[in-house]
Every structure is written in C-alpha cells, then in structure tokens.
Design brief:
The complex is a heterodimer. Chain A is mainly α. Chain A is built from 19 helices and 6 strands. Chain A has a 6-stranded parallel β-sheet with strand order 1-6-5-2-4-3. The chains are: A mainly alpha, B alpha/beta. At the A-B interface, helix 1, helix 3, helix 5, helix 7 and helix 8 of A face helix 3, helix 4, helix 8 and helix 9 of B.
Chain lengths: 460, 272
C-alpha cells in the first residue's frame, strides 16, 4: 500500500491547503449573514479549483478510512466539511438532501458535531419535513436521509422520536407503493429491487440508532445490530451496482458508527451506578436540553486519557473554552463519591460570579441524585452559619469556592480530613496557574492540600 | 474488406481468435471492427468458458444472500422475493461479452462488472457499463466505457445514435468529471484487500498527477456484416480530451442463438 496521504501529495498539498484556507475565509466573510447566504466567489476559476480540491479531499478521506488512519480521517473530513458548508445548496430536492447528508457525515467524521447541529438548526433550506415523491424509491431514499439527519441534529427527544416515526411510516407505506415501483422498473428489476433492500437495511440501522440514543440499552449489542444492517445494506447496494447510492450509504455508515461510539451511553453506562443514574438524568425526556452524545474531546478524555481511572491521582484537562469541561468534572465528582461516599469535593473557581454559576449548574445536575452542593463566597472571616454548615458531618458533598477562601478554611482548620476526607479538588480555569501572583497562590494551595489531605485526587 | 492487423494484445491468453476487419484513427480516437476467425472455436467458447463467465459477471446467488436477512428490518419481503430473479437481457449479455473480451484480449481488469446506466429520480449521476483498469507497459490507467448490443440492419444502428441513451450520448457524459470522480471513489472503497488494489492505486496516481488521465472505451456488439459505417459517425460528436477506443465486435452467429447457447443453468433470458 502506498504511503499515508499519498493522494493529497500526488495532487499537491499546497493546492489542498489553499482550498481549505480559502473556504474558511469565505465562511468567515459570510458568518454575519444567514448561514445559507450565497457565497461570493472571486472568480469562476476559484470555484473550479475548490471543486477540484474537494474531489481529491473526498478520495483522500476514503483512503484514510480504508487505512483506519484517525489523524488523516479527521483532517480530510474537517476540510471537506469546511468546503461543503460554503457550497450553495442545490435547488433540486434530491440533490439538496444528498448534499446535506454528506455535509453532516463529513462534520461527524471531522469531529464538528456541534457545528453541524447548529448548521442543521439554522439553515432554513434543510428540508426536514414531508415532501412530494414521484415513486417509492425516492420516498424511501428521502425519508431515510431525513431520519438520519434528525439523529444528527438531536434537538431533544422530539427529533429522535420523529426519526423513528419516519421509518415506521416507511414500513407502512411499503405495501402500498413497492409493487407498483417494481412493475415500473421491470427492465432493471434486480438493480431497483436490491437498491430498495439496501435502503431497508439502512433505515433499520437508523431506527436502532434513534432508539439507542433514547434508551441506551445494551450498547455493545446495539452496535453489533447496527453494523449487521449496515453491512447488509452495503452488500445489497454493491450488487445493485449503483455507485452513487453506494457512496451515499458509505458516508452514512461511517458516520453512524462514530455516532454510536460518541454517545453518552456507549462511553459511560458501565462505569458505575452513580454515573449510570446521572446519564439517565442527562438524557431524560423531561430534560430541557438532553445530552445524548459527548463532544469528541470529552470522549477522548474519558476513553483514551483515563479521566475516570481511579488510580490516577492528578488529571490535567486542556480543552478550549465552552468545550464541556464542567460536565467532565461532574463525572469525576460522581466517580469520587462512588469510590468513597463519605468524601467531599472542593471545586475551585477564580471569581465570585463563577462560584454562583457553577453552584447553580452543579445543583441542577447533581442535586437530583441526592448530592448537596454548597458554596462559600469570598470573605475574610467565616460567619457562624457558614461555619456550622462547613463543620457539620453531613454538610455537603461539593463545596464551590475560590482559592483564597479555601485557603482560609484549611488554614483555619474548618475543614478537617479526619471524619470526612477530601476526595477530589477541581481547579477551574487552571491555566491561570501561569499568572505570576495568582498562579503562585494556586500552586501553594495545591501543595498544602496535597500535604494535609492524604489520598486526595486533583482535576485541573 | 481486406483484413488488417489488429492492435490489441495478442500475447494474452485469448480464448478465441479475433481479426481486425477494419480500423481507423482520428486524433485521439481509434476505431476497430473485429471479427471472429473460426465459427467452431466460437461455438465452443460461448457454451463453455463464456457461459461460466456469465455466472460470474451476473452475480448469480447474490440476490438470495441479499434477501436473506431482510425480515429483520421490519419491512416486507414477499414482493421482492417474487420479483427479484436472475434474468439477463440482451444488453446484459452484450456487456458480459464485452467484459470478457476486454479482460482476455486487451489487458483490462474489470473489478466491478456494472450494468446500471438507467438514470432514475434518486440518481443524478449515471454509472458506466465498463469500469476497468488497463495495464500498458508499466503504467495503469482507469478505463470507463459503454457497451451497446444490436441486431438492427442499419448502419450505424440506433443504439449508437439515439439521443436519449445512445452510445454517443453516453460517451459524452464522461466529459462530466463528477461521474468519473464518483466511480473512482466507489472503486477506492471496494479496493481494500482486493487483488487489483495495487493496480488501482497506480491508476489513481496517474489520474491525479496527469490531469485526470483515463481511457474511454465504446463497444458495439453486432451480429451483422462488418462495416466501418457502424462507428465512423462517432468521432465528430466526441470532444473528450482523453484517449478513446471504439470497438465493434461482429459475432459469427445470430445474437439470439449466441445468447441461448451461452446462458448457464439457473439464469433466464429476459428477451429484448
């Protein structure tokens, strides 16, 4: 097999880089207008160069998938997503849905899940409703594609339920339309029939995915079942000998497998009972913004970096702002409480405003699981009520405070390690440790905690 | 018409002996009319080796495999089981015949015998009858092409000139880079672990480095008297930049007889 990334090298790395940068630039230019606003190309030649580069990127992505090269899959899929986002959506109904599905698949493979969900929400031209169809194959193709997009968008339970409803309606419609369609295609009945078989299996796998996101039952068995139907779909479309639909199914197949593995159920249900309860709550129907999948950096932290590994005493998470560090902290809190129910957790944040914000978030998420979250706001002295709160044996499970206040509490011997061990210290915005004065204080506090409290764990 | 030397590769293990009846060359387009030398040899070939090849190209047995687990999807299987069967049409037979000649006499591998060229509502991009890899000296290139089969006593036959789906129209479609790109992507997906994977990689490298290099082939399968008129109208309509090979294969027996003699057990002839 030739070297990794040989397709891009044969075509010209510079040309690909230029196309990706140019697309990004155009996207930035249009960012303040509507998402589906027509991109203004500088010249027709620019447009042709972009299409040419896109052809090569897609080929390179297929090659990376066949080599199972994660780094290149990520790179090419991200570039393909960048370019697809700026290409105008086709007017034709079937072409448009194909374009949208491919865009979504590239986003998932390129770990741009949040971007594509926003894109699906904000782009008015995405036809997530019922359409008029000229025959059964078109109906089946279109509704299966929409059902898939609903599982990508996941705007609460409604999208997932609608996805299953679409598939269920297709099953009901089959009896009515399939026979007529096969009659109309007697000349190519084998190909036409096998194409339907491919889409029936694809529809089934999407249905399984939508159900799995809702109930999370038996993740391994579910993935096996999904893969079984995806393989049958692939087999049928190969025998139907329709390259275009074969490619369409290929992209969906790869995206679906990743979606299962990024689901919150796949990653967390087997960790411990505390976390299972929490996951059920996060995905619950009554939850205003249910979380069905984790962002790729969160998945990596949990699956590959051993965030929940009880042996690791200190874990440092380096993630961009708003990429979900608080949720990871919550998982770690639950893990700590599972291992030692009597322990308590110190959650250090840099400002008073953040004390309130984090306390509210933790209360919202963890109080339903019976946890008590308290806050201790910055002040030079403790008031009697606060003192009683902190020294009571069953006072709280998590204390949200600033580093200065925690320092005061520890030095004042208000928080002792004898009856209630400190199990975990979480330092939010830990990158501030680099700041001269404040960073030094943080470092000194952590050193003191490490000395005073045996077996304490750290999450920075 | 005087016999001429054929330009295809005689060194290969050809199951039957062909002779070039006529040939022509115009710019990037080469034309050949090819006849079979021995009737006896041909009869043995179509009822023996070629009959087995039909089984391979048509993918017999695959339908049952594909239908086997359909019940698990919750969709009905009755109508599909009834309607899907192994029938081959005249056009299918012509394609299988062309594949085998390309594989045995022209050093072309056909990794994915394809027969779909009917554009439907859900497909915007048609496929190609021929998707192949051609080895010449040390280089490998992609081959894309179309096959037409006709018994019509008219020169050229309508399958060549028909506006909607004639040979000229279908070859012209390869001017659209999107069609080729889709087909290459699909082959790339299938290539992993196959015997033709390294040839595919070489062809893709040539395609990328040499400004989308590929070879286009148009094949006409006939059972009429050989005449250059069958293909001579094509060059004036084609503006493809790539190399184009046009071949007319003249069968030594009526097409219908050839088909009935060669169809293996378990596969039915669908007629026209």
């Amino acid at each position: 097999m030739p070297a990794n990334n040989w397709i891009v090298e044969a075509y010209g790395e510079d040309r690909i880089k230029h196309a990706a940068e140019y697309s990004q630039e155009l996207l930035c230019q249009s960012v303040f207008s509507k998402f589906d606003a027509q991109i203004q190309w500088d010249t027709e030649e620019d447009l042709q160069n972009i299409y040419s580069a896109l052809e090569v990127i897609e080929l390179a992505l297929v090659d990376a998938i066949r080599r199972e090269n994660k780094k290149l899959i990520l790179e090419h899929a991200e570039n393909a997503f960048k370019i697809y986002r700026i290409i105008a959506l086709p007017e034709n109904q079937n072409e448009r849905i194909k374009h949208i599905v491919k865009t979504a698949c590239f986003a998932i493979l390129g770990e741009k899940n949040a971007d594509v969900r926003r894109w699906l929400n904000e782009n008015e031209k995405i036809p997530l409703g019922s359409q008029k169809y000229s025959n059964w194959a078109e109906n089946l193709f279109f509704d299966t594609a929409v059902a898939f997009l609903l599982t990508v968008r996941k705007n609460g339970w409604q999208d997932l339920e609608n996805s299953s409803i679409l598939i269920s309606n297709l099953r009901k419609s089959q009896k009515k339309f399939e026979k007529q369609y096969l009659k109309e295609n007697t000349e190519n009945v084998t190909s036409a029939g096998l194409e339907l078989v491919a889409f029936y299996h694809l529809a089934k796998s999407i249905d399984l995915l939508a159900i799995f996101f809702r109930n999370g039952e038996n993740p391994i068995k579910t993935l096996q079942d999904i893969n079984f139907h995806l393989d049958r779909s692939s087999e049928a479309i190969e025998n139907a000998k329709i390259a275009e639909m074969g490619l369409f199914i290929f992209w969906i197949q790869n995206a679906i497998q990743l979606m299962v593995k990024n689901s919150i159920w796949w990653i967390l249900t087997r960790v411990n009972s505390n976390i299972t309860k929490f996951v059920k709550q996060l995905t619950a129907e009554q939850n205003r913004k249910p979380i069905f999948e984790l962002w790729p950096p969160q998945s990596r932290a949990l699956l590959e970096e051993g965030l929940l590994d009880p042996v690791r005493r200190a874990v440092v998470i380096q993630m961009p702002t708003s990429s979900g560090k608080t949720l990871l902290a919550e998982f770690r809190i639950l893990q700590t409480k599972q291992n030692n129910p009597d322990s308590w957790v110190a959650y250090i944040v840099p400002t008073r405003a953040l004390v309130n914000q984090i306390t509210n978030r933790l209360r919202e998420d963890l109080a339903p699981l019976g946890m008590i979250i308290e806050q201790s706001v910055p002040a030079f002295e403790l008031d009697p009520i606060e003192e009683e709160l902190l020294t009571s044996s069953e006072a709280f499970d998590v204390l949200v405070t600033t580093q200065e206040k925690l320092d005061l509490l520890i030095r004042g011997k208000k928080l002792k390690n004898d009856s209630r061990p400190l199990g975990l210290v979480i330092v939010d915005e830990a990158h501030n440790i680099r700041l001269r004065e404040r960073g030094l204080k943080t470092e000194m506090l952590l050193t003191m905690i490490n000395r005073e409290f045996a077996n304490v764990h750290f999450l920075l | 018409m005087e016999s001429m030397q054929c330009i295809f590769n005689w060194e290969l293990n050809m199951p039957i002996t062909w002779t070039a009846q006529y040939q022509d060359e115009r710019a990037n387009i080469e034309i050949q009319g090819i006849i079979i030398a021995s009737h006896q040899e041909f009869n043995g070939y179509i009822s023996g080796e070629f009959s087995e090849k039909i089984r391979h190209y048509s993918g017999v047995g695959q339908i049952e495999v594909c239908l086997r687990n359909l019940k698990d999807t919750g969709f009905q299987t009755d109508d599909l089981e009834r309607e899907l069967n192994h029938k081959i049409s005249k056009a299918d037979w012509g394609e299988y015949f062309a594949y085998h000649q390309l594989e045995t006499s022209f050093n072309i591998t056909i990794p994915w015998p394809s027969q779909w060229d009917k554009k439907k509502n859900t497909h915007s991009l048609p496929g190609a009858d021929i998707i192949g890899l051609k080895r010449e000296d040390d280089t490998v290139t992609f081959v894309f092409g179309e096959v037409k089969t006709s018994e019509e006593i008219r020169h050229p036959p309508q399958v060549v000139t028909k506006k909607a789906d004639g040979l000229i129209t279908q070859l012209k479609r390869f001017e659209d880079g999107k069609i080729i790109s889709n087909l290459i992507q699909w082959l790339l997906i299938r290539a992993h672990g196959k015997a033709w994977e390294s040839d595919f990689d070489s062809a893709l490298r040539s395609y990328l480095t040499e400004n989308r290099l590929f070879t286009c082939i148009g094949i006409l399968v006939r059972d009429t008297t050989p005449t250059p008129k069958d293909l001579s109208c094509i060059p004036e309509h084609l503006t493809l930049r790539c190399k184009v090979n046009l071949y007319a294969f003249y069968l030594p027996a009526p097409l219908h007889d050839c088909i009935t003699k060669s169809i293996p057990r378990g596969i039915a002839y669908a007629g026209e």
